Amino acid sequence: MKKRIYKIKNADLKNYCSFKIGGKAKCIYFPENIEQIKCLINKFKNKKIAYFLLGNGTNILFNDKKFKKVIICLKKLNKIQINGEEMVCGAGASLFDVNAFCVKNDLGGLEFTYGIPASVGGAVAMNAGAFGDDVCSHLSEIVVCKDGEIYSRQNLEWSYRKGVLKDGEILIYAKFNLKPAKKQQIIEKQQQFLQKRKISQPFGEFCAGSIFKRQGDIVPAKLIDEWGLKGLKIGGAMISQKHAGFIINTGGASGMDVLTLIEIVEWIARKKGFCFEREIIVL
Ligand SMILES: Cc1cc2nc3c(=O)[nH]c(=O)nc-3n(C[C@H](O)[C@H](O)[C@H](O)COP(=O)(O)OP(=O)(O)OC[C@H]3O[C@@H](n4cnc5c(N)ncnc54)[C@H](O)[C@@H]3O)c2cc1C
To answer: With bands split at pLDDT 50, 70 and 90, how would you rate the model's confidence at 219?
Structure first.
């Protein structure tokens, strides 16, 4: 007998994003294998139901109102295993678990991701990166689902915060090519990166990473700081005192508070001759 796909109806989106902001979602589906993903996608395609793919919700700002699309979350597809020289990660695996797996199996290369609160799916979609490195640079192959078809690709293109997925592709598995490394060295590197993060970012606050992308030499966080905007507050949303590229929910912020603050910064930037590009996805 086929296992039913786990789902939560009338879900509170606050519980599914790092901003802790959002209204209700009609339904969140949690498929746990490829068959269930195919089944869902085909069903939505046939019934013309719009869906949104959710990772760990750490780069997303939800609306305060009811979310119109249904949501698919691959959190249950979180296996990590070794296949020959490669590490194969389910899209729902967290980067924390990936890093723990790397330590256990003496694999080096992804230490810079330690502390990024993403899922593998979100990290590959966004090409998450830090300290001069990025996730997609370590990929060897991806397995994706598009229109209910499953296929793999090795021909991968990416750029700054723009991952390897093409329109409509859902990441199922990512294969990483990593190098053998000494356990102790991996741990030390991870801790160094984590420390740097804790010093420079509002670690542990309700936020969603950098709001704006770097554009070459233009670093929005640096400019926002220079313009004296740290601490600027709308409702419960505030530009972080620690890192001007982050907006934090100081408690009870609405999606509209955060969006208004983003738009104010964009307006000021335009007045000063800059056009900031959003890294965060506003839904
Ligand atoms: C405290 C903090 C620190 C951060 N530091 C960094 C950092 O150093 N560097 C950095 O790059 N980012 C950072 N971020 C931002 C965020 O973690 C990344 O953008 C991350 O890649 C988002 O992953 P996610 O799983 O949360 O994806 P989500 O936010 O859930 O989704 C992001 C996008 O990916 C898509 N997506 C998710 N899963 C899949 C899938 N399986 N297939 C196809 N598309 C998918 C979603 O549809 C959405 O478009 C930080 C965030 C926080 C809160």
So the answer is: very high
Could you tell me if the CB of 53 is within 6 A of ligand 1? yes
Task: Give me ligand 1 centre to Cα 221, in Å.
Answer: 19
Does 191 map to a domain? yes
Residue 274 and residue 257 share a domain: yes
The CATH number of the domain holding residue 242 is: 3.90.78.10
Residue 247's identity, in one-letter code, is: I
- 74 neighbors 173 (Cβ within 8 angstroms): no
Which 8-state DSSP code applies to residue 216?
T
Q: From the CA of 1, how far away is ligand 1's center (Å)?
A: 35
For the record, the structure tokens of 92 come out as 């729902």
223 in contact with ligand 1, CB cutoff 6 A:
no
Q: Specify if 167 maps to a domain.
A: yes
pLDDT digits (tens, 9 = 90+) for 136-185: 999 999 999 998 899 999 999 999 999 999 999 999 999 999 999 999 99
Query: What's the pTM?
Result: 0.95
Q: How far is CA 129 from the centre of its chain?
A: 11
Is there a single domain that holds both residue 108 and residue 172? yes
For ligand 1, the distance from its centroid to the CA atom of residue 125, given in whole angstroms, is: 8
